[in-house]
Amino acid sequence: MHVLVLGGTGLIGSAVLEELKARGHGVLALARSNASAEKAARLGAAVLRGDIARPEIWVPALPPVDAVIHTAGDFDSNMAKIDRRLLDVLLPHLAAQPLKPRFLYTGGNRPFGATGDAVATEESAFAPLPAFAWMVAQLQRVRESDAVDGIVIHPAMVYDGSGGGVFRRFGQEATERQAVRVVGSESVHWPLVRHDDLAALYALALESAPSRSIYMGVAIDAFPVGRIARAFARRFRTPHIEPKIISVDVIAAERGDWARGYALDQRLSGAKARRELGWAPRSLDPETEIAALPDR
Ligand SMILES: NC(=O)c1ccc[n+]([C@@H]2O[C@H](COP(=O)([O-])OP(=O)(O)OC[C@H]3O[C@@H](n4cnc5c(N)ncnc54)[C@H](OP(=O)(O)O)[C@@H]3O)[C@@H](O)[C@H]2O)c1
Q: Taking the model in full, what pTM does it have?
């Protein structure tokens, strides 16, 4: 397939791009800077220059595609407006293509809110923190659009094999502080997935998911955040193995309101993707992966 990837230089998007190339798909990546264009080209993509905040500039130049995978975004407070305008311009353009394309939209674990001991699935109601509330209407819009065959992937908290993604802060604090900080409590649970496992799910969904379907990209339903912090402290010989507990207000003041998501105690199930798409994530033991990280 010929696939447009938005965010193809990011943690999720670059893994998706590599997976698509490995499976023989053609990839066109949107890039908003020279550095992003060079990275996308290095990963084997053709490059379309453009910014998702200014879709009217690059969307008219978009050649026909079989699919769009949207993984672009940041935690900018304008993200709601940017994403709405992107769809306002992109969906009518795609509707005018001779063949209806597939459109994979990236949701997330955070729209599901704290689940407590319950396990959220694709059928569960949303309960987003205010910083993520805008996304709910976008998810519905993509799935219900007649312009595309919309599919939603909800990734868990994503890490990569070099201690990046949601593990990055733990690694930094393990080497720079007396103790790794944990927001709320050590027993807060996070759903987890490694970037390359998640990319395999995007590829499977691209190739065979039914239109309007939803999949959780969750390899590990719930992992106690205290065990992640302790694994980093052990690996990098942090003076105190026991994490320092900080409040959600402290992390929000430091990083922004979106960081309140760190304190969400969540259990999410990736069973539907395993059952329906044959997804088989391989990375299921993050503590062993953390123990094997190289020195910093
Ligand atoms: N990481 C997670 O744990 C996680 C979990 C659930 C959901 N998500 C969602 O998944 C999406 C991607 O996450 P990620 O971790 O892969 O993020 P990331 O590593 O920060 O990558 C973001 C990507 O979006 C691109 N981008 C951002 N703003 C853009 C703009 N205005 N125009 C064009 N490109 C733009 C970036 O391009 P540049 O290279 O130019 O910066 C980069 O390629 C986000 O919406 C996030 O909320 C992430």
A: 0.98
